[in-house]
Each structure stands twice: as structure tokens, then as C-alpha cells.
Amino acid sequence: MARPRFGLIGTGFIGRTHAIALNAVGAVFAEREAPVCDLLADSSPAAASQAARALGFARSTGDWRDVMADPAIDVVDICTPNFLHREMALAAIAAGKHVYCEKPLALTADEARGIADAADAAGVTHMMGFNYICNPLLQAAREMIAAGELGEIYAFRGSYLEDYMSDPAAPWTWRCKRELAGSGALADLGSHLINLAHLLLGGIARVQGDLQVVHATRRDPVSGERRAVENEDIARALVEFGSGVPGTFEISRVATGYKCGLTFTVFGTKGTVEFDQERMNELRWYDAAGPAARSGFRTILAGPDHPDYRPFCPAPGHGLGYNDLKVIEVRNLLRAIAGEAPAWPDFHEGARVQRVMEAIEHSAATRSWTEVPA
Amino acid sequence: MARPRFGLIGTGFIGRTHAIALNAVGAVFAEREAPVCDLLADSSPAAASQAARALGFARSTGDWRDVMADPAIDVVDICTPNFLHREMALAAIAAGKHVYCEKPLALTADEARGIADAADAAGVTHMMGFNYICNPLLQAAREMIAAGELGEIYAFRGSYLEDYMSDPAAPWTWRCKRELAGSGALADLGSHLINLAHLLLGGIARVQGDLQVVHATRRDPVSGERRAVENEDIARALVEFGSGVPGTFEISRVATGYKCGLTFTVFGTKGTVEFDQERMNELRWYDAAGPAARSGFRTILAGPDHPDYRPFCPAPGHGLGYNDLKVIEVRNLLRAIAGEAPAWPDFHEGARVQRVMEAIEHSAATRSWTEVPA
Amino acid sequence: MARPRFGLIGTGFIGRTHAIALNAVGAVFAEREAPVCDLLADSSPAAASQAARALGFARSTGDWRDVMADPAIDVVDICTPNFLHREMALAAIAAGKHVYCEKPLALTADEARGIADAADAAGVTHMMGFNYICNPLLQAAREMIAAGELGEIYAFRGSYLEDYMSDPAAPWTWRCKRELAGSGALADLGSHLINLAHLLLGGIARVQGDLQVVHATRRDPVSGERRAVENEDIARALVEFGSGVPGTFEISRVATGYKCGLTFTVFGTKGTVEFDQERMNELRWYDAAGPAARSGFRTILAGPDHPDYRPFCPAPGHGLGYNDLKVIEVRNLLRAIAGEAPAWPDFHEGARVQRVMEAIEHSAATRSWTEVPA
Amino acid sequence: MARPRFGLIGTGFIGRTHAIALNAVGAVFAEREAPVCDLLADSSPAAASQAARALGFARSTGDWRDVMADPAIDVVDICTPNFLHREMALAAIAAGKHVYCEKPLALTADEARGIADAADAAGVTHMMGFNYICNPLLQAAREMIAAGELGEIYAFRGSYLEDYMSDPAAPWTWRCKRELAGSGALADLGSHLINLAHLLLGGIARVQGDLQVVHATRRDPVSGERRAVENEDIARALVEFGSGVPGTFEISRVATGYKCGLTFTVFGTKGTVEFDQERMNELRWYDAAGPAARSGFRTILAGPDHPDYRPFCPAPGHGLGYNDLKVIEVRNLLRAIAGEAPAWPDFHEGARVQRVMEAIEHSAATRSWTEVPA
Fold first, then answer.
1. Strand A217-219 to A271-276 pairing
2. Residue C374 CA from chain centroid, whole number
3. pLDDT under 70 in chain A at which residues?
4. Which end of chain A is more exposed for a tag (fewer CB within 10 A), N or C?
5. Which run of H or of E encompasses A337?
6. Per-residue confidence (pLDDT) for residue D33, from 0 to 100
7. Structural domains for chain D
8. What is the SS3 assignment for B14?
9. Hey, of A210, A240, A251, A256, which one would you mutate to test binding to chain B, going by the most B CBs within 10 A of its CB?
10. Which residue of C has its CA nearest to A149?
11. B298-351: per-residue pLDDT in tens?
């Protein structure tokens, strides 16, 4: 198969991460050739041209529709603000491109499901950008759970705590506006946690949520005026998985001091496993077997015996970084496009995540337990 | 004032902790004389006699009513299983004794309130055994919050995770039976967490709880038969303090690998403070002031500049232990009896804790948000 | 046997710790009766009287020689500044008392050996106050090493880092003066580390040391004048045990930020064990057996399955404190006096520690490897 | 300036790391264009051809001398086993190429100095592959020290502990043979620690070293016979910097359980800073200013306010990985080649590191303090 040609839209934080991964994936995963960094779209021709040069793309455009129209492009990679995802994804699907989209897939669960169905109907490969779950240690945790190493699983704790909006003086951004961002901490951070929970324990059946806006207004850095914050700074939820396992979620963008506190604990009859993205190269495991006097949580350092670590480094404990997760994700996408492996998390997973988010919002609004639609 | 004479009832885990503290408090806190370890009551004359000798008590009895009837006794110290607390406390109050009672105060909130009211009416000093809050670092955390060092407080996370019932083969005990223990993890562990939350942030207004029994039956070690577990192994709750601050609780006696995971995080606009009893000599504090490049959670080791540490050791970081907390608690009780300081946590606090526990149970049963009675 | 009657000399930091332990040991270790806190000596009758009342002693004196002369006293407990140890210990031995002495035993190794020999000749029980090694987790580490759980041992790293003299403005004290303190960080901190190394791996054969005075003078808080610091702030050494195992020591009283950093790592072919007194309830163990993907240092929390923990608390992870170590030490002393167990660390161990200290000093002075006399 | 064309020799562990970095550096550091991955040399034409395809190189050769002879090549990148470094570096210098060489530069200090002098004479840019020091947090530590944030520096502790040879059954490799590897743990790991010490505190004046071979023979995986291990498994040293600051080094390739324990602590009058590569996104800092009750080591998470982090990710705490360090190193090399910044660590630093290594070896052999030649 020829090297897939990528058209990347958006060159902010996450767009650059994608570009770095597209440049590096070939050298890291010798199993396959590098994709072609072909066309880069940004908000203006000048910005796009400069970014293309910086990020190793061959061509650029100031109009994202050019990406869809270009027959040379095999894969459309969407790294724009949330409110643009739907229109771009649908256009890419309509053009018969494979689509790779950052989370959240859309602003509502219904929209997300529509996109996923359209992608299926068009027969294109579709994948979400939920990079955290690509961590070799999370894949190891998934394997431990699936293999019964923890015994019967009966409880889940998860959090995603950051503090990027913690400062009361932090400016108003598009993330605070519902029609641009959808929900707040839920969409930006909670979506990752929900996806991670899905990876480990499967679907979520019902939730009891609670939302909190800590700072009701923020200063618009352009106008200087205070504007309303239209979505939650913190989301909390009691949850119940389809398997019957209960758990809790805690999600915050105002968790002063936390920078990337995506964590989970999974409790089982034979052991417990837990993780914190701030120490992303460590997995903590308690094995209930063995004498009490020698038992304790062990800190497993990521190494070549964990899935997908070895191509980065043959030595354990040397450490992967955040950007490496995206390299693994891109490799997964390339495999899916080549038909070598199922695409996951696909857009259906993206829609499923969004249904959980909406159920939490509905539950918080109605102060009642809410079923997550199947 | 003469040295108060103690009558201690019960010589299990916590009874011994009380005895050790009563023996040590005088030497630790040179501010006051040691109490008199006078009369020890246990389930039989022989057991009591042996225990009295071991624990440094002058006299013993196999009948706890002797303690109430003895005019020499100033303070009754109740360290028996939960279901006995009420009868003993009321008898002690009726006899005009000061009463020091382990948590939970009673099996129901109504009973607890009744005991507190009776104690007030009798004019005796009453205090609960919520030893964890005596930790110098928790007192420091309370001071930091009260002094505004964290800015405006807006979120709370708390947990108390142990695994003493985690093993499916762990035997049935009285703690599994409602009429002997009341609730399960809530009464045994949650009561401490609720009291700690009260200390830091004041009263709790409403809750949304969820209870889980992981192991429905356990083997009775006497009969060998399997008996029903009548109360929860895990309790989870969304909570809202009277101040409007929301939070979450997570309480488990089946948290495989956790031995004493009483933890909290308090988030404020200027900083965050957190604690884990498994590292009881460390307080983690993030101060949002100062440049980002030099900011991070700092680990404050307990030391003589924190309340009540210095009498144990003038050097920082040398470490207090679990039993030392009880020594501080006894000192607090002695101060209250001497009229030098208010008694806290008193029986009203004990009853308040129980109202929160019951509200969580009610909420879990009705699947709805539940107000905590004032 | 009758309860041993103690005469305690000195009521500073460590004297109070002894007093607390003497008060608590009976209640903690039900195996034996409490010793009698009989006579307390301090520098003046008034100070001694006040301290006796505070610390639960029956009688007091302003002249330590009264302790030696008093036939009621069975055990002399020496908690005075270093330079007084020798005279007091010899006097106690001459009076036929059992002697319990804080480290270092004397100002020189020769003096220390003389005291040990005198104690042997008198047939009295003698024990050093090296409390850290009483930690249940250190006893567990010793057992693991002895039982071969780490395989063949081949390397040792140890440190004792504190910062009590770190501040350049910290005042001059008797600890800075050779004729009062002997060596500096070595005597105060290093003695503990050497004793700990002895416990784990046996005697030390030779050393290559390096000493450093960071702050050459300090202000005398009485006279206001600057006085010379006559001994080391930091000691470092390459060491070689008699078994052939090499290692390193690092000892500092000016390790800014460290409060009680007594640490060690022992490396073996099958595993590694390590410890840090600042987290005295945790032992870290790496077991080289098992698959790499599941291997990591585990954090073992102290619990009732470790030696001497259970009498303090039947639940794991609740935590011992610094003062609890002294309670265990006192129990060990009582056992030795009762002839139930050998006294260790006895004065010969105290002298052995001192020979290592002197060898490090000699090596640093001569810049050469130095044999430790047997 | 045109994009520099790289000729890379060697495609093992570290060669692949170089290739990944060469592919990624352009996208990460938008400040400059990507270098050209032009010619790849490996031990056979077939291996080289396959590797070139996998690692994104345009051309390949089975003879490294082709790289030197090729006029298109601007930079020779040497990633071969230690014993080949010298010959290749001298050939590249002779051909007027810029040279980028993995550590150690040569098998002896004299050879290393000769290479550095030759490179200077030829006027080419030369740089060593000491990637760890590229960590944004280590650059921050260097800045903190240089700016006096720690006050006057007076002590250093450093270690580099791995366990890749810890298993007694680990096979004999070329690293065990002096004429192929030079020294053992010193060359492979110690060189990094020495370079790091140089970065932070400058040159080392004298050392007292101790070397240890734990496993005297290992099984040759080819012949099946046991072969001698000709160099040290562990190196320890007392050191003294040119500034007068003393310190210690501990270096091991048999530190069971340690995977990448490159650590240091720098002590100063105003604070302490420390680091552990196994948690490479954390810098621990103790600031002695401020009240004792609020002081503690803080854990600073790497973020965009630290040097060179932002181009990887604008959000703090998301984490860099081992391979990212090499990307920064390559960027430094490109800057040096472009004349925008001095090359450091250059070959003179490589030679300086080697002189320290040899001084440790000499000291261990003679059992005496040894001066490091200037």
C-alpha cells in the first residue's frame, strides 16, 4: 500500500502534536513507512504556509475545504476547536476520506452519532484522538484486568484534574462558551477519562452527576469585558458500568496545583491497579497474593515488556512522553487504514463518550440518576 | 484539680490504644498530670484482671456497670463494639460521669442526638474518639484554610479506603450485622472522614449517596456457615457543605491494597492542601503564588512548628504514629474536663456525623439527593 | 522478677523520649509489667523536681551521683550530653547498676571500649540507645537479608541527612565543640547509620572518609561572639564490610531540607531493599523474580506481620512514630535485664560504632584507606 | 543556510534514538528546518538498506567509510559501539565533516583529547551525545544554581543506577571487554553523571574511587562458555570539584530494581535541588526561606516555563520522554552548526569526562586520592 497522504487542519497545541507524530511515526515504528505530511490548512494562507514549513508539510492552504477537495489526500486530520469538528468531519466523509478527529467528536451526542453513522455508511476509516489510552502501561492495565490478574473487578475511581482555569484572572476563551466548546471540563478532560474507563471496564449504564461553575465570569482578553462562563469548571459523578461495577468520576479544570491528573484505580478481589498521568511511566499494582509482611503497591516502570514501548526504547524506565502517545495513536490509525487492525477508539466510541457526558449533564440538571442511552 | 480517674470499658484494638494514651499523656504533655488509670472493665473478671495488669490499671471488673456505680471514677471511657455505646453512655451520664466514647456514638442518628442531649442536660463533659483529626498536620491544614491561605475554598475530595474485608475469605464479624454495628464502612471509616470534613469545612447540607455490598455473605468463623453481610462494603457520595462547597466522599473496607487511606484534598483559589493518613507525617500544599517555573506541591513534614507536635519531639520529620494521635485526643479531653478548652468533637458532633451517615444511606435507598437534618 | 526501678539522668529531647517510653512500655507490651519511673536527675533540684512531676517520676535530684548511690535503683538511664556519658556510665557500673546509655557511648573509641569492658567485668546489663533499628520494618529487612530473600548481598548505600545546622545563622552549641561532643555529624547522626549497617550486614573492615566543615564559625547565643566549629558538618565515606561487601556512607547535619533522612539500600542478586526514616512506616522492596512487565519496587507498609508492630496496633498501615521506637528499645532492655534475650546493641556495639567513626576521621585526616580495629 | 545533511552510522538502541530525533526535530522546533536524513550506514548493505527505509533515510551503505567520502554529507553522526568512536570521529574530522558522537568519545582520555584537538584544528563543529542534560528541568536546575537561588553551593550527591547486568545470568557482551568498551559502568553510565555534574557545578579536581566487579564471569551467548568481565559493575567515588565543593558518585549497572536512576542532589545555604531521571518530569526543590511550618520539598512538574519544554507541549505536567531529550540535543547541534550557539557538550567536554573516569580508575587501583588532569 502506498504511504497515506495526510491533510491536517489546525496548528494549535494539538495540531502540532499531530504533526510531530506524523513526522516521527515512521522512524519509531519500523514496521511501516512514514505517512506523507502533504497538505496543511490553517486560518489564513500565510499562517498555513509558515506552519507547513515549520511542521514538515509539503503544501498549505488557508481554506480547509481545499483539503476535502484534494484527491491526493487520503486522510483528513481534524485538530480545530470543538465547534468545527462536525462540519469538517462530515465534509471529509462526504469526500470519501479517512478521518482522524480530536475529541470531542461534536457538541452533542446526537451530532456525534450522526457523524459516526455517516462515516460507516461511507466506508471510511474513522478514529478519535484519545491519546492517553495509548500509554503502554494503560494497555498493560487493560490486559491485567482482562486476564483476571485482579480477580473479579468491583469498583472504579477515576479523575482528571487540571488547573488551567484555576486562576480567577485566567482569561475567557472559547472553551467557556457552550456553542463553541459544548460542555466545559467534561468535554475537554472528562472525555478522556470516560474513554479510559471504557477501555478498562466497558460501557457505562447510568450516572448521577453534579456540575459546578467556580468562576461565573471571566475577562475577555480582547474586549476587556467580563463574559459569562457557560459551562462547568468541575464535574463529579457517581457512575455504574454496564457490568454492574460502580464507580466515581471527578473532573476539574480548576484543580489548583494539578497539571495533568488523569488517574484511575480499579479494585478487584485479587488486586488493585492504579495510574496517574503526571507519572505516566509508572503503574501501581497491589497483588493480594503472597504474605502480608511482603505485600505492598509496587511501582512498575514502563519498559519494553509493555505493549508498544520497545520501539521507542529497548531499556526500561527511560520514559515515554506525552507526544509519544500520539505517535502510537497514529500508528494505530495507520494499521486501521491498512486493514490490519480494527480502528479504536472510532467515532462510535466518540459518540458513546459524548452520551455519557450528556447523561452527566442531564443528571446534574435534574438532580436524578440518568440512564446512558445505548 | 485532682488527677481525673478513668474507668475504661473494653480492651480490644481501640481500648488498648486508649490505655496506652492514658499511660503516656502525662509524660508527653508536661502541661498536666497523668490521669489515673483506675478501673478496667472487660467481659469477664479474669480477662479484666489480666488486662488491668497489662495496661497499668489499678483495679478491674467483669461488669461494666461497676464502672458507673463507682464514685471514685470521674471519666468513663467507652471502647466497646458499636451496639453497646448507647447503653453505656447513657448509664455513665446518669451517673454524672464525664464520658469519652469511641465512634460511632450510636447505631442511629436519633439515638446519638438523644445521648448528646442527655449529656448536656447532665452537665458532664463528653467527647468522641475521632483521633485522626488530632494530627498536627490536620490542625495545620485547618488553620491554613481558616486563615485564608488557600484563598476561597470551592471543592473537597475525601476518601477513607481500607482493605480489611477485601479478602472474600475474610470471616463474618459483628461489623457485618446491622443491629450490632449499624452501617458498615460508613460507621467504621466514613465517620472519621465526615468528622474530618466537618473540621476543615464545617457542616454538610445534602448528599447523594451510593452503597455497595461486594461480598453478600461471609463465613461465620464459629458456626462455619455463611451469613449475610447486612451493611455496605463501599459508600460513595456527592456532597454539598452548608457553605455551598461541593465535594465527594469515597469510603471502602474492601479497597484491596489500602491500609489506612484516609485522604482529603481541599481546593481554593490560592492553593490546594492534601493529606493521606498512610503518610500521616506529610501534608502536601500547593501555593499558587509565585512563578510557574518554581511551583509545585510541597511535602511538609510534621514538625515542632505544627500544633501539638513539639511535646512529642523537638525535631521535625522524626514522625508521629497512630497512637500519638490518641495521646493528643486524651490531652484535649483532660483540658475540656478542666474547663480550659471546649470539648470537640463532642457528642453533638458525634450525632452530626451520624446524621450525615444516615442521609447517605437514605439517599442510596431512594436514589435521590437527601438533606442532612440540622 | 520485680519491676525494675529506673533512674533517669537528663531531661532534654532524648531524656523526655526515654521517660515517655518508660511510661508507655507496660501498656504496649502486655508481655511485661511497666518499669518503675523512680528517680529523675537533672542539673538542679528545682528543674529535676518539675521534670519528675511532668514525666511521671516518683522522686528527683539535682545531683546525678545520687542515682548511683541509691540502692533502690536498678537501671541507670543516661540521656545527657555526650561528654558526660563516660563518667556516668562508669559510675553506674561501679555501683552495680544496669546501664542504658544514649549514643555515642563516649568521646573516643578507646574510652568506649573501656566502658564496655568495665560493664562486662561488673556483670551488669548494658545497652545503647540506637532506637532507629527497633523499627519493625528494619527488623523485617534484617530478616529478609538473613534469610537470603535478596540473594547474595553485594552493595550497601546509606545516608543520614538532617539540616538542623543548615542555616548559617544557627547558633553555636556544645555539639560544635570537640571536648563536649566528640565528632560532629558523625557522632550525632553517623553513629545511628553505622549501627544500622552493622545490624544489616555486620562489621565494617575499612573506610575511606572525607570530612567537611561548611560553616567554620557560629555565633555563640550567650556571648554573641563567633566561635569555631571544631567538628564536621558532613562526613562521607567509602566503606568495606568485613564480609567483603563495599558501600558508601553520607552523613550531614547541613542537608538543607532533610529532617530525618536516615536511609539505606541493600543490593542483592535476587532483590533490593531500601528505607527512609522520613517515611518510617514504609519499606521498599524489589523482587527480581517474576516477569519484568509486572516488576517494580513495592512499598510495604508496616503492619502486624512485622516484628513488634502488633502490640502497638493490630491494623496495618496505621503507623508507628519515632517515640514508639524507643518503647520497643526499652522493652528490649527489659528483656535483657530479665535474662530473656541478649542485650543488643550493647556497649561493645557502641564501642564498635565509635571505632568506625574514628577510622573515618583518621582516614579523612590522612587521606588514606584506614582499617577499623577489631 | 541549507538543511544540513546527516550521515548516521549505527542503528542499535541509540542510533534509532538519533534517527527518531532527526525526523522529529523540525516539527518540534519550528525555529528551524528539519535536517536531511540522507545516508545511513550499518554493518551490511542489506541491514543498512532495511534500516534506512525504516528510519526515513534516503540512502544507505554497508561501509561507514562511504559516509566520510560522500561530499553531500555535512554531519557525521556516530552511534556505534565505543571502540569504533575514535577511528570514525577522526575520519569524519579528516573529511571536514561536523561530528556528533555518542559517549564515551574514546576508550582512553588521551585518545579523547586527541580527537577534540583534531576537531578544533579542522574547524568542524563537534558535539557529544549526553542527552540527559537536555532535560528542561536540568537546565532549570542549572539556572537556579547559577542565579544563586540555592545560595552558596557546598555539596553534591550523584548516582546513576541501572540493573541491566544485575541478573547473574545476563549474558556476556562487548560491554564487558576492555578493548571494546573501555571501562564498564563508568563509561556507560558514569559518563552521563560526570557530564551532568560538570553542567551544574563545573570541573572536578580530584577523586577517590572504588571499583567493584560483582560477577567475575558471564556466559558468552555465542560460544556458551564463561568469559571474564574485564571492567567494573559498580564505581563509587568521593569527589572534589574545582570550586572546592565535595561530593559523592555512585554508579552501577547491577543495581537490582533501578532502571534509569540518574539522580543528583545539590545542597546550598538557601536551598536544595534534586532530580531522578526515573521521574524525569519532576524537579524537587527545597527553599529554606519562609516559615518552617510551611516548608518542604516541592515537586515541580516540567512545563512551558522551563527551557525548551514549550515547543513539545504548551501545557505543564503532560510530560516529556527520553527520546525528546535527544530532539533537544539535535536542535542544539543544529544551532551550533549554524553558528547560533556554542556547541556544548563538545568533544573537549567528552575528553574531560573521560579524564574523570580515568582518575577514578587510577584512584581505585592505587587506593589513593587522584588529581584529575586539567
1. unpaired
2. 21
3. 1
4. C
5. helix A322-337
6. 84
7. 5-132 (3.40.50.720), 134-366 (3.30.360.10)
8. helix
9. A256
10. C294
11. 999 999 999 999 999 999 999 999 999 999 999 999 999 999 999 999 999 999
| For B210, nearest residue in chain A (alpha carbons) | A238
Query: Between B246, B258, B268, which is nearest A256 by CB?
Result: B268
What pLDDT band is residue B1 in, cutting at 50, 70 and 90? low
Any chain B CB within 8 A of the CB of C319? yes
H helix intervals, chain D: 13-28, 45-55, 65-69, 85-94, 109-122, 136-146, 178-181, 185, 191-201, 322-337, 347-366
Residue C146, C-beta contacts closer than 8 angstroms, at least 6 positions apart = none
Q: Angle at CA A53, nearest 5°, toward A52 and A59? A: 50
Residue with cell 571505632: C355
Q: Which of A277, A281, A306, A331 to mutate to test the interface with D (most CBs of D within 10 A)?
A: A281
pLDDT at C1 over 80: no
Check: CB of residue A249 under 8 Å from CB of residue A239.
yes
Residues of A in contact with C293 (CB under 8 A): 140, 300, 303, 305-306
Report residue D8 as a C-alpha cell: 548516521
Q: Output the furthest CA–CA distance in chain A (Å, rounded).
A: 66
Across chain B, what does the average pLDDT equal? Answer: 97
Q: Is D170 touching A (CB cutoff 8 A)?
A: no
The string of pLDDT tens digits covering residues C77-131 is: 999 999 999 999 999 999 999 999 999 999 999 999 999 999 999 999 999 999 9
**Which cell is C284 given?**
521498599
| DSSP 8-class letter at B41 | E
Asked if C299 reaches chain A (Cβ–Cβ under 8 Å), the answer is yes
Q: Phi first, then psi: what are they for D241, rounded to 5°?
A: -75, 160
Query: Which pLDDT score is estimated for D30?
Result: 86
Q: Give the minimum alpha-carbon distance from C258 to chain A in angstroms, rounded to a whole number.
A: 23
- Which residues are CB-contacts of D90 (< 8 A; sequence separation ≥ 6)? D115, D118
- Alpha-carbon distance of D246 to D248, in angstroms, equals 7
Convert the pLDDT of each residue in C158-179 to its tens digit. 999 999 999 999 999 999 999 9
D234 interfacial to chain C (CB closer than 8 Å): yes
CA D254 to CA D215: how far, in whole Å? 9
The residue type at C115? I
The answer to whether B10 faces chain A, any CB pair under 8 Å, is no
Q: Which residues in chain B have Cβ-Cβ distances shorter than 8 Å to A166? A: 269, 288
Q: Tell whether C166 lies on the interface with D, counting CB pairs under 8 A.
A: yes
β-strands C296-301, C153-161 pairing: unpaired
What residues does B206 pair with on adjacent strands? B240, B371
Distance CA A107, CA A179 (A): 8
- The fraction of chain B above a pLDDT of 70, given in percent, is 100
User: Subunits touching D (CB < 8 Å, at least 3 pairs)?
Assistant: A, B, C
- Nearest Cβ partner of B155 from A167, A234, A271? A234
C173 touches chain B (CB under 8 A): no
Nearest in space to A364 (alpha carbons), one of D46, B238, C122 = B238
Quick: pLDDT tens for C284-323: 999 999 999 999 999 999 999 999 999 999 999 999 999 9
Q: Is D1's pLDDT higher than 80?
A: no
Q: What is the biggest distance separating any 2 CA atoms in chain D, rounded to whole angstroms?
A: 66
Mean pLDDT of all residues in B353-359: 98
C225: confidence class by pLDDT, cuts 50, 70, 90: very high
CA gap C264, C196 in Å, rounded: 9
- What pLDDT, in 10s, does the model give residues B94-123? 999 999 999 999 999 999 999 999 999 999
Question: What pLDDT, on a 0 to 100 scale, did the predictor assign at position D29?
Answer: 95
- Quick one: average pLDDT of C213-235? 97
Beta carbons within 8 Å of D79's beta carbon, 6+ residues apart: D8, D9, D10, D11, D12, D14, D15, D18, D102, D129
